[in-house]
Amino acid sequence: MVSEHPDASDGETAALALKILVAGGFGVGKTTLVGAVSEIRPLRTEELLSEAGQSVDDTDGVDQKVTTTVAMDFGRITIRSGLSLYLFGTPGQDRFWFLWDELSQGALGAVVLADTRRLEDCFPAVDYFEHRHIPFVVAVNCFAGARTYGAQDVSRALDLDQGTPVVLCDARDRDSGKEVLIRLVEYAGRMHTARLLDSVG
Q1: Beta strands 67-69; 46-48: pairing state
Q2: Keywords of this protein's UniProt record, alphabetized (predicted)?
């Protein structure tokens, strides 16, 4: 989603708002990232984990988690004057993936959050964006006590397409999250420009 704010005065560049998805496995930090970087009070659709969901929600490795996103998270951050990002955090469990198609409509790109303790949990998100040709970066959320891996190690483990950025981050830290978003906007801009040039070439 790229929209222009109509209130830009004459002679000024119209402000752009870009739609970004934040995806990844259950309990990886999507809600935390959106909340950390958002300059507005984030919209959250979290519910308490229930006994009914125990058979389908794998909480191994995230034993302290007591809530889960059931629709989406929403936040906004201004990257620079005239450029804002609207952030849509996706639900992580399989049973809510039907929402992804709606949320991804018009998105410039996506952040796939990864936890190296449960790296396989982000495979579905990686596959989703690769198959739909939506530019994405993988952001490794560095949890305390987790073994540290380099970006190249993670890229190989996920079998990412060449050039797909992998960055290390702390989803709790605003500056760290903002750097991830900047990397995504830069990468998505290059990808969209290359596709445009290919289409006219």
Answers
A1: antiparallel
A2: GTP-binding, Hydrolase, Nucleotide-binding
CA-angle at 113, arms to 42 and 53, nearest 5°: 75
Q: What would you report as the CA-atom Rg of the chain, rounded to the nearest whole angstrom?
A: 17
Burial class for 36, CB neighbours closer than 10 Å (0-12, 13-18, 19+) = buried
For the chain, the 3-state helix, strand and coil shares in percent, each to the nearest 5, are 35, 25, 40
Q: Tell me which residue has tokens 């396989």.
A: 120
Looking at residues 41-63, what average pLDDT do you find? 56
CA distance 68 to 48: 6
Sequence-ordered list of residues with C-beta below 8 angstroms from that of 35, at least 6 positions apart, any chain: 42, 44, 73, 75
Find tokens 């222009």 and name the residue: 4
d(CA 164, CA 185): 13
Confidence bin at 100 (pLDDT 50/70/90): confident
